[in-house]
């Protein structure tokens, strides 16, 4: 009974926070328009949206289905408002659950994932805020040619370490999606800009292959 | 009419409100989850380690996001990119959103915007382009999670395989991406070399954790691998670039 009440309360408060977050997000452009009496030309907004919305609306919706089971309920409400999911929140949650020895989809996994995402969101927000405040001092260092290669390689540096843990843990499950993705990117390198849309494709390949291996008793 | 400026106090004030909101929401969820964790028998030490290692891990990607803010700030000023990248944003979205809208208006990305209505057009696109997913979370998450729970309940073995497949789907998409530039020759192999050095550091950590019983290292293995590989990227790029 107590178990259910925690889950229910996360939905209750999560929805309040998310609804407030959406309201605040929309109020940002609204207040700019009101304060400066500067309403945009709708044709420009439409043209801009046409360039990005078809792909990002699709990715955004698919992301919910892909990440919600991994992040758990609280983690999803929080992670989707604070953003930067693939490069920050999802790896932080996966790593924390792995290190604490709890499983995603169980209640212990749920709370550890929420704690990881909340800590990550607070740390990120503070680092960015501090960075903006100290920009004068930091900009020459951060944009120095010496450090540039390091920041260009954040994603490979992140997914190399994360990958080796998950692939070695489930190597049978990993073979099919890995081969598929490597071949795909070798064949169509331009896909790198839409890697977001390929996450669910990879998941479907992995699930399909797992289903097949399970039937043949290979798992 | 107040004079428009991409770095005006008014824009900073809006940003501050949103940043405080994000911090408050995170703190609220953190406190509640930590309490629940204790009730579930998770030790205080594990909770503290989770908080510390997740924060530590976030520093490098956060600096990456800060670089995104700096990139956009030449054109949009500091407050808007700061705000957009702190809430629901990601540089992979905000940059194309801002550039396509600027292109539609024939604006150059190299100097700060002076026209407030052009600025508000960009602010609208940056906001509207990212919002549908969060509406789905608001109205659909309960159903999605129920589906996950019933899947796990019906067939626990398949439930676990399903979850692992989701993780591996994400990881393999990013692993595949490492190979996107292979055709460019040696410089195209840099991402692979960096990922391999990260994997190597992680493997060494794994051995130390198991063989030398350095359990504390478990929480820091990922931040270490990531920072180590980023540092390694500097000589790797110099050699292969």
Structure in words:
The complex is a heterodimer of chains A (219) and B (241). Chain A has 219 residues and is mostly helical. In chain A, 85% of the residues lie in helices and 0% in strands. Chain A is globular, with a radius of gyration of 21 Å. The two termini of chain A are 35 Å apart. By secondary structure, chain B is mostly helical. Chain B has two domains: 122 residues, no CATH class; 63 residues. Chain B is globular and about 65 Å long. The N and C termini of chain B lie far apart (52 Å). Chains A and B meet through α1, α2, α3, α4 and α5 of A and α1, α2, α3, α4 and α5 of B.
- How big is the Rg of chain B? 22 Å
Structural class call of chain A reads: mainly alpha
How far apart the termini of chain A lie comes to: 35 Å
Report the mean per-residue pLDDT of chain B as an integer: 90
Overall body shape of chain A: globular
Q: What does the largest sheet of chain A look like?
A: none
Classify the secondary structure makeup of chain B into a structural class: mainly alpha
SSE string of chain A: HHHHHHHHH
Greatest interface and its participating residue counts: A-B, 156 and 153 residues
Number of strands of chain A: 0
- The percent range for helix content of chain B is over 70%
């Amino acid at each position: 009974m107590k178990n259910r009440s925690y889950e229910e309360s996360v939905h209750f408060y999560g929805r309040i926070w998310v609804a407030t977050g959406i309201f605040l997000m929309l109020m940002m452009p609204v207040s700019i328009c009101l304060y400066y009496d500067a309403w945009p030309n709708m044709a420009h907004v439409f043209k801009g949206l046409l360039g990005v919305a078809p792909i990002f609306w699709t990715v955004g919706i698919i992301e919910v289905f892909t990440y919600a089971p991994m992040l758990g309920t609280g983690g999803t409400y929080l992670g989707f408002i604070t953003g930067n999911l693939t490069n920050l929140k999802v790896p932080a949650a996966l790593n924390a659950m792995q290190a604490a020895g709890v499983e995603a989809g169980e209640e212990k996994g749920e709370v550890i994932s929420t704690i990881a995402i909340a800590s990550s969101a607070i740390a990120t927000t503070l680092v960015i805020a501090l960075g903006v405040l100290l920009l004068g001092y930091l900009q020459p260092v951060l944009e120095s040619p010496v450090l540039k290669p390091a920041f260009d390689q954040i994603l490979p540096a992140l997914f190399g370490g994360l990958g080796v843990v998950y692939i070695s843990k489930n190597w049978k499950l990993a073979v099919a999606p890995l081969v598929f993705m490597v071949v795909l990117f070798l064949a169509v390198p331009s896909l790198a800009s839409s890697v977001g849309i390929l996450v669910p494709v990879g998941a479907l390949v992995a699930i399909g292959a797992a289903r097949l291996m399970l039937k043949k008793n290979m798992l | 009419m107040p004079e428009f400026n991409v770095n005006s106090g008014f824009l900073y004030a809006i940003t501050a409100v949103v940043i405080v909101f994000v911090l408050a929401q995170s703190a609220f969820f953190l406190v509640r989850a930590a309490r629940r964790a204790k009730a579930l028998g998770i030790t205080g030490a594990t909770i503290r380690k989770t908080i510390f290692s997740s924060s530590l891990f976030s520093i490098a990607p956060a600096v990456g996001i800060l670089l995104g803010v700096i990139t956009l700030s030449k054109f949009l000023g500091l407050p808007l990119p700061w705000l957009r990248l702190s809430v629901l944003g990601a540089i992979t979205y905000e940059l194309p959103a801002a550039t396509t809208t600027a292109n539609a208006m024939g604006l150059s990305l190299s100097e700060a915007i002076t026209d407030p209505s052009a600025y508000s057009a960009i602010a609208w696109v940056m906001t509207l382009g990212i919002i549908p997913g969060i509406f789905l979370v608001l109205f659909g998450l309960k159903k999605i999670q129920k589906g996950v729970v019933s899947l796990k309940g019906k067939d626990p073995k398949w439930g676990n395989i399903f979850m692992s497949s989701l993780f591996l789907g994400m990881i393999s998409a990013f692993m595949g991406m490492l190979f996107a530039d292979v055709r460019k020759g040696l410089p195209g192999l840099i991402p692979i070399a960096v990922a391999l050095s990260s994997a190597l550091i992680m493997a060494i950590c794994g051995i130390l954790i198991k063989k030398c019983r350095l359990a504390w290292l478990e929480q820091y293995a990922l931040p270490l691998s990531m920072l180590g590989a980023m540092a390694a990227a500097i000589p790797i790029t110099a050699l292969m670039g």
